Amino acid sequence: MTDEEVFGYQQTVWSRPDVAGYDELVDMTEVEHIALPSADRVQQLAALSAAMDAPQSASKFAIVAPQDLAFGLGRMYQAYRDQDTRSMKQVGVFRTSKDAGAFLGFDGESLKRGKV
Fold first, then answer.
1. How far apart are CA 28 and CA 44, in angstroms?
2. What is the pLDDT of residue 105?
3. How far apart are CA 61 and CA 84, in angstroms?
4. What is the CA angle 1-26-79, rounded to 5?
5. CA pseudo-torsion sign 85, 87, 90, 95
6. Domain count, the chain
7. Predicted local distance difference test score (pLDDT) of residue 106
8. Strand pairing class (59-64; 89-94)
9. Helix axes 40-52, 68-83, angle to 10 degrees
10. Which class for 74: exposed (0-12), middle (13-18), buried (19 or more C-beta within 10 A)?
11. How far is C-alpha 101 from the geometric centre of its chain's CA atoms?
12. Least CB-packed of 51, 60, 89, 112 within 10 Å?
C-alpha cells in the first residue's frame, strides 16, 4: 500500500457528494507492505480527511488492521482525526473484522462474505 494510493482514494471517493455521510471500512488484512514516506503523512491524511467530511452528517470509519504496523498507523490516524475539530467521523481501529463489524453495526461474518 502506497502513500499515493491512500491519498488518491481519499480524494477520489470522498470528494463525491453521493457518499457524504456514509460509514467507511478499510481492511488492511491482506496488505503485505506499507510504503510510507514519513509519519507526518499520517497527520496530513487525517487533516485532509477531516476537511472533506460532510459537516451535516456524522458517520463511522472502521479500520481492520491485524498487523502491528498497520494497527499503530491506524491508531495514529485515529488520534489525529479525533483532535481535528472539522472531523465528523468516529474512527475505530480493530484487529478483527468481527470487532469492526460490531462497531459499524454489522455482523462480522457478513463482512467476511462481502454481504454488507
1. 20
2. 93
3. 15
4. 90
5. negative
6. 1
7. 85
8. parallel
9. 50
10. buried
11. 13
12. 51
* Cβ pair 21, 60 in contact under 8 A: no
Domain extent for 13: 3-112
Beta bridge partners of 93: 63
Per-residue pLDDT of 58-112, as tens digits, reads: 899 999 999 999 999 999 999 999 999 999 999 999 999 999 999 999 865 655 5
pLDDT number for residue 108: 54
Q: Strand, coil or helix: what is 89?
A: strand
Task: Tell me the average pLDDT of the chain.
Answer: 91
Q: Match 480527511 to its residue by C-alpha cell.
A: 49
Stated pTM of the model: 0.89
Integer angstrom CA distances of residue 114 from 27, 90, 106: 12, 22, 11
Helix (H, G, I), strand (E, B) or coil at 98: helix
When pLDDT is averaged across residues 48-56 and rounded to a whole number, the result is 90
Backbone φ and ψ of 77, nearest 5°: -60, -45
